Amino acid sequence: MAGLEVVVRPVVFPNIRPAPAQSVPPQDDPDKGFAVIRGNGGKQVSLSNSWSASTSTSKHQETQRRVDKARVYQQDDKGTVNRENFVDIEVANKIWMKGPPEQSAGIQDTGGAVPSQAPTTNNVEIQFYRPIQEQKNIEIKKKNYILKSDQEVGPI
């Protein structure tokens, strides 16, 4: 008896690789096996396709703003204010915006065509903002200062 020893013999297959591709003899007719479509030459069919898109954006333009001019001093986490280090800021509290031209109510729909002399209206939108509050590190220098077209006009 062999005991704990086992004899293992590996099995070797004669050829595990696929066989090489065999060459095919040339066909007698090179057009053989292809479908040929023929017509009667009647008339040409042409389909027209048209597509268009149009977009417009409406942007408001700022005409004037009312601001408060303030100085903000540096303040650390402990609440100590450093009066030597500051930034001057302008805080808007009211802004006037001129809207884009809109068609007035009397204009009739012309099927997408815009009349050359269409009456338009420019609406004015006013936006209010909370004014700046005086605090330990904020000092207000000027209140309600009007700015028009990048020019200072003065307090109202």
Topology:
Elements (H helix, E strand, L loop, with lengths): L60 E15 L5 E23 L16 E9 L9 E11 L2 E5 L1
Antiparallel strand pairs: 1-2, 1-4, 2-3, 4-5
Verbal overview:
- The chain is built from no helices and five strands.
- It has strands spanning 61-75, 81-103, 120-128, 138-148, 151-155.
- The protein has a domain at 61-102 and 120-149.
- Strand 4 (138-148) and strand 5 form a beta hairpin.
- It starts with 60 loop residues before the first strand and ends with a strand.
- It is elongated.
- The protein has a five-stranded antiparallel beta sheet, with no helix packed on it.
- By secondary structure, the protein is an all-beta fold.
What brief labels describe this structure?
0% helix, 40% strand, mainly beta, 156 residues, five-stranded antiparallel beta sheet, 5 strands, single chain
